[in-house]
Amino acid sequence: MLGSLRFRLPALFLLGVVLSGLVASLIAIRFFQSYERTRAVGELRAESVGIVRLEASQAGARDVPIRNLEAAIGGDRIFYVPIVRGAQLFTGPLPQLPRSTVSVVELNRSVPRAFDLQFAGRRYLAVAQPLKLGDQLFGALVVAKPTSQLRSRWVTLFERLAIAFGGGVIVAGLLGVYLSRRITRPLLALSKAADEVAGGNYGVEVPKPRGSDEISHLAARFSDMAAELSESEQLSRNFLMSVSHELRTPLTAIRGHVAALREGVIDDAAMQEASLGVISEEAMRLERLVGDVLDLAKLDAHRFTVLQEEVDMKHLCERVHAAFAEVARRRAMDYRLDVRAHPVIVTDGDRVLQIISNLLSNAFRWTPEGGRVELSLSEQGSWVSVVVADSGPGITAEERERIFRPFWSRDGGGTGLGLAIARELAVALGGGIDVRGEPGLGSRFELVLPAQRPPEG
Q1: Considering only CA atoms, which of 121, 142, 140, 128 is closest in space to residue 76?
Q2: What region does 75 belong to: left with phi over 0, alpha with psi -120 to 50, or beta?
Q3: Domain limits, the chain
Q4: CA 447: distance to chain centroid?
Q5: Which of 14, 5, 13 is nearest to 187 (CA)?
Q6: Residue 276 Cα to chain centre, angstroms
Q7: What is the SS3 assignment for 369?
Q8: Strands annotated E in 179-319
Q9: Low-confidence winner among 106-110, 294-298, 303-307 (lowest mean pLDDT)
Q10: What is the dotted CATH code of the domain comprising 214-301?
Q11: What is the tens place of the pLDDT at every residue in 136-177?
Q12: Architecture of the CATH domain 5-153
């Protein structure tokens, strides 16, 4: 409980509020103390000047009542510091302070300075004002304010700050608990969903918090991740089923023909040759399937090699075009080769042949009998373009990116590796594959390769 985010968030929030409140309160009290002292000093200076002027207006008469003066100045104390012995300027009980309380230098200052005074066990904040008759300095009048009055104001401020601080802590605590629950609730839901995904349940429903904050973004990305994992798992299952089917079909044919040959069921030389041809074709089919799986593994691990050799693109296109000519003839398809350039570039010829073969194989698979498949070669600037166009069912906008994913197939048949391998190889050769198409209008795959020329000489 103490180590959970639900507890630590409000605890840290509340601790920050408490520390900030304490620092602010200490600063406020310190400023208030300085302000009160400055104001008290100003009051004492004004009072001392007023009393001295009153005394001067009496011209030394002995009828200035001290108690009335103290009452008039709000209870502040008045003291007398004699400079000239025997000089008594006031009537009434006026306490005297030692001569050392103030100095003549201090009395000659234009603005009297405040000082701390202790008298009869009490502490005062005091200001001394010189007493003169003419040019003769007789003594000093000291007006003092008990520091207990200043302290009472500080205590009042402290009590009010304490009440405000306590209320603020309560409000901050409630707000912290609310924010903690608001933040941790979706996080706990995401944590439970993550546990479900870790257990293999990719179809878990991820909660979607309201708003557009970081938690909402995290929930959306987690939901996308779960959907991708679910799709990846489904594709993997489809791949295993497809590979199992693709492997079983040629193996069944090979086993059947081998058994017939071994048992002497086929004794005619021509039929034996045909059976051996079937075995050879099915073995090549198995080899291509295993090669596709190995190519994909190498591409994912970036462990395949790319050769650098001179490649006659016109000759290569004619070669791969001829490889599918028999298939086109059997299916009565319009199969064309359009060569508009004769570039010779430096690349990996076998990989380029594999890419074009995969594109043509995909085109023949989706083009119905009597349809059209066209292979064209052209050159634009520093790029060589090989286009495979067909009159098949076309490609929707949503499928244009999916068709290059490993194991994905529109109808669930095949391994779904051909186009994925083709694009990865094209990128490895420094180029890429662009696809265009509309539903019902066929599709167009364009392989673009850099036209790197062989060195002359």
Answers
A1: 142
A2: left
A3: 5-153, 214-301, 309-450
A4: 37
A5: 5
A6: 63
A7: coil
A8: 309-312
A9: 294-298
A10: 1.10.287.130
A11: 777 888 888 888 887 777 777 778 878 887 887 788 778 777
A12: 2-Layer Sandwich (3.30)
CATH architecture type of domain 309-450: 2-Layer Sandwich (3.30)
Kindly list the strands in the beta sheet with 122-133, ordered across the sheet, starting from the edge strand earlier in the chain: 77-82, 136-146, 122-133, 114-119
Q: What is the mean pLDDT of the chain?
A: 78
CA distance 34 to 81: 28
Q: Which amino acid is at 447?
A: L
Instruction: State the residue for tokens 């290059």.
Output: 404
Q: Which two tokens stand for residue 47?
A: 């009072």
Q: Which residues contact 128 (CB under 8 A, 6 or more apart)?
A: 48, 81, 101, 102, 106, 107, 112, 115, 140, 141, 142
Q: Which residue has the tokens 């304010």?
A: 145
Place of tokens 């009472």: 152
Place of tokens 């010189």: 130
Q: Specify burial of residue 373 (Cβ count, 10 A radius: 0-12, 13-18, 19+).
A: buried
What is d(CA 285, CA 407) in angstroms, rounded to the nearest whole number? Answer: 18
Angle (nearest 5°) at CA 189 between 184 and 192: 125
How many Å apart are CA 435 and CA 451, to the nearest integer? 20
Which residue, chain included where needed, has tokens 């001290």? 66
Strands 334-339 and 372-380: parallel
The three-class DSSP label of residue 401 is helix
